[in-house]
Amino acid sequence: NDNAPTFRVNEEALNIAESSLPGSRFPLEGASDADIGANAQLSYTLSPSEHFSLNRNGNNDQSASLGLILTKSLDRETMPLHRLVLMASDGGRPSLTGTMELVISVLDANDNAPQFNQSVYKVKALEGSEFGTLLITLSATDPDEGLNSDIVYFFSKHVSTEVKEMFTIDENKGEIRLQRKLDYEEMDSYEITVEARDRGSPPLSGHCKVVVEVLDVNDNAPEVWVTSLSVPVPEDASVGTVVALLSVSDRDSGANGRVRCWVWPSGPFGLEATFLGSYSLVLREALDRERVSEYEVEVRAEDGGSPALRASRGVRVPVSDVNDNAPAFSQAVYTVLARENNLAGAELARLWARDPDEAGNGRVSYSVSEGGVGGASGSSSSGGGGSVWRPASSYVSFEVRAVDAGEPPLCGNATVQLFVLDENDNAPALLPSAGGGPEAGAVSLEASAGLGSETLWAWAAWGAPAGQVVAKIRAVDADSGYNAWLRYELWEPRGKSPFRVGLYSGEVSTARALEEADGPRQRLVIVVRDHGEPARSATATLSVSLVEGAEAALAAGAGSSSLVARSAVGGESGSGATAATNVWLVVAICAVSSLFLLAMVLYGASRWAPRAAVLAGPGPTTLVCASEVGSWSYSQRHSRSLCVADGAGKSDLMVFSPNFPPPPPGPA
């Protein structure tokens, strides 16, 4: 069994009429199998369908008749197309199969009559309407297709002669129009039976009824006239103020001449009847020109006719301004960030106050309020008096006043807080030693700017353990924030130096135990940099003399453990520097030999007792705290005292004081 059943085509199209009756049989072409015997005996199956089944007459051979049986009536409007799969299987083991798709198109039959969406349509028409007036457009639907859904409209044969004379209907569009003038007194309503018929065979029809109600016409509309008008109306006008006088009349009589009046929109105005046919337009609510500057009022009149006729008269009511709004800033407090070193006259910020009033009532002028924070005062326009110098701190917070030009003038205020942003315009400055030696602090240390550096002297004993502090580089930066956060780096010697520098403390300590092989002297170049962009730096040269333990102790007793600043002499030979060191050591030994014990006591007391540093000078103090993790804060203080208590850790506390030169005396 090596041949599967095959159909002549893969898809067969069938057209079956929608009107076909259940049980109808439609022949199908079977499949063929090239095998013989049982391998060629074919059986057929059809995919599931509620409308069709498979029928086969004769034996299970290729000559048997195959047919499709309609088991349920078709409805093209529900399912116009059916797709089924016919499968042929042979008798071999294993069985082989072949398939063919049946595409069944349902042909339409005229089995649906036209349908209107309403059984009764009601139409109202005014008497006296023009000829050809469209009253209604009828529409019927037919779900069939082709001619079976093509609909024509006409009056039923039972329609009266009056209807045929008064109305016409378009057989294709279903439009009913007037062909004569309606007269309410002659006939107040009409009933029209309309038939919608398709063009099928046989044709099917649907019916509806159209009821036309004729409405009586009120021939004369009311008339509204403005006899007096008082505008503009001040926005502070009191309730009850008369704005306009109106006259209303209608030429009709009876109910058709009886007129009702009102104001639209209702808004702040209303009507009051004064006497027959006369009305006053009065103010019922307070006005606000800033909310609504002009009103378009419509006085409407309606008579009592059926149907009622209406008339209207528009009245334009402008509202005049009064100074009832003070200038208002969008914020109560403005925060302004300004960089230092800006030029005089540079714009710091723009403030704008809104005054919804108009003309002079809304024209705003600005000034710095008198009696502001720090005594700041002034005006946006220059005056002719003498100038009074004020410290810069008085401008950190001040008040701006906005005044309109109304009568009386109204004003609004806003506070401006000015924060000066630091720029990295100051390089670190090296400070003199804090020790008690005779030369401590005697030499001024300046930031290097390509002009060299200052040499600092220190002593260390051979055999000193790792981590012993030899000296401390002290520097300060007049900037703030990151611009004043200093770091210390050992620039020379590079590589394995016996000394190291604390990154943020500036302490020079031994990196390992000192040996005689390290030589009699170590020259260290230390760079102090801030964290600004671009960074600024200063350079210090530290000369560390390595001496015996006793000599180092004597030097420490003399207060020389701190750095002693001396000007570096370029080009000095190594032997000359050593000789100078020995001379100073001898002088130090002679100077303190008689006070050695007292010096040791004082040294211990100063080493372990709490210390307080008090700095004094003119101007406010800016306190900057720099920790080893780089956290910063600053504040303004009138006091310039800073006390460091026990347990301060390794944090550095530095006080920076901006010293401004005294102002030049102002003109008398």
From TrEMBL:
Transmembrane regions listed in the UniProt entry: 583-603
One BP annotation, GO: homophilic cell adhesion via plasma membrane adhesion molecules
Keyword Transmembrane helix: yes
SUPFAM superfamilies named in the record: Cadherin-like (SSF49313)
Protein name from the UniProt record: PCDA5 protein
Main location: membrane
PROSITE patterns named among the record's database cross-references: CADHERIN_1, CADHERIN_2
CDD domains: Cadherin_repeat
Organism, scientific name: Sakesphorus luctuosus
Pfam families: Cadherin (PF00028)
Subcellular location as annotated: Cell membrane
Compositional bias per record (Gly residues), positions renumbered to this chain: 371-387
Name of the gene this protein is made from: Pcdha5
Region (Disordered): 363-387
Cadherin domain boundaries: 8-116, 117-224, 225-329, 330-430, 464-548
